[in-house]
Write a structure and sequence with these properties.
It comes from Verticillium longisporum (Verticillium dahliae var. longisporum). Keywords: Transferase. It is a single chain. The protein has one domain: Glutaredoxin, CATH 3.40.30. Helix 1 packs across helix 7, helix 6 packs antiparallel against helix 7 and helix 6 crosses helix 10. The protein has eleven helices and four strands, in the order βααβααααααααββα. A four-stranded mixed β-sheet has the order 2-1-3-4, with helices on both faces. By secondary structure, the chain is of the alpha+beta class.
């Protein structure tokens, strides 16, 4: 079938965490359908500024509702240990770890990039909520990323190289360019998707609960939500 999903995510976005879980769970199946998936770290704060949007918790009613919605969404993707940082606003300046991810992607390859991206989400959104925006803490977290066959993914020298690389102009430019690209596409938050179907048509999607729309746009076979008659057993997600 083919097609492409470009997903723009920030570590400081809880719904981006739900998105990476969903995408990694279905990564091989999407590949079997010929769909290419590319994840792009972006700075959500810059997207909010560029689009004129505001964090949802700044509106009390949204903040209250968000406690219910985030829990439901987390459970759906198998994340039962979510614990938001005490000071999300202060911890959400994730510029350095986002740059570091681009260094990892270009230096160590896609598998290392995906494993590290997911691990940074876990470190940020589960207790004790590592403050990965701080260079020293980021170095500790990178040193703990599990390897594919046991052990650690990065050596001490690797971590030093990644941290140094995150300070280069190239890393700065890459993060800035990808964030601006999302803004130019119309992004007003994260997760943001730019999807290309097999016919070459492109459309934007927003939110971690839009995969049924994405799959339909790509022409993929999927099971939509449907209400069952009384007595019929529900299928497990």
């Amino acid at each position: 079938m083919g097609g492409r999903i470009d997903a723009y995510l920030d570590i400081a976005s809880l719904y981006s965490y739900f998105t990476i879980e969903e995408l990694l769970k279905n990564k091989d199946r999407l590949a079997a359908h010929g769909v290419q998936v590319d994840l792009h770290p972006v700075l959500l704060g810059a997207i909010n500024v560029g689009s004129g949007n505001k964090p949802p918790w700044t509106l009390p009613a949204k903040a209250t509702y968000g406690n219910f919605d985030s829990h439901r969404s987390a459970v759906r993707v198998g994340l039962n240990n979510i614990s938001p940082p005490e000071d999300l606003m202060a911890d959400s300046m994730t510029v350095v770890p986002l740059r570091a991810l681009y260094v990892i992607k270009s230096t160590y390859g896609e598998a290392a990039f995906l494993a590290t991206f997911r691990y940074l989400f876990e470190a940020f959104w589960t207790a004790p909520n590592k403050k990965v925006a701080k260079e020293a803490v980021l170095a500790e977290v990178l040193a703990d990323v599990p390897g594919p066959r046991g052990g650690k993914l990065f050596s001490a020298d690797d971590v030093e190289r990644i941290i140094s690389g995150a300070k280069t102009q190239e890393a700065k430019n890459t993060l800035k360019a990808q964030t601006q690209k999302a803004i130019d596409q119309g992004a007003f938050g994260a997760p943001w998707f730019w999807v290309t179907n097999p016919q070459g048509k492109e459309e934007p999607f927003f939110g971690s609960d839009r995969f049924h729309f994405i799959y339909k746009f790509l022409g993929l076979p999927f099971q939509d939500i449907s209400l069952l008659p009384p007595g019929e057993k529900a299928a497990k997600l």
